[in-house]
Write a structure and sequence with these properties.
mainly alpha
């Protein structure tokens, strides 16, 4: 895989960034936003790939 600047622009949402709790100088996606997105992903994964468990997510 190579770095894709257009992909990074698409994924970068400054309004959804918050300081990381354990490292305030680092930005992460808002915890509630991330929780909702992960729940939606898990629902879709279960629907399309029920045999594929999630070990962890970032």
């Amino acid at each position: 895989m190579q770095w894709n600047p257009k992909g990074e622009e698409f994924l970068w949402l400054p309004e959804m960034q918050v300081p990381k709790k354990t490292a305030p100088d680092t930005l992460v996606y808002d915890y509630n936003f991330r929780r909702r997105e992960i729940a939606e992903f898990e629902k879709d994964l279960l629907k399309h790939l029920p045999y594929c468990p999630i070990r962890y997510s970032f």
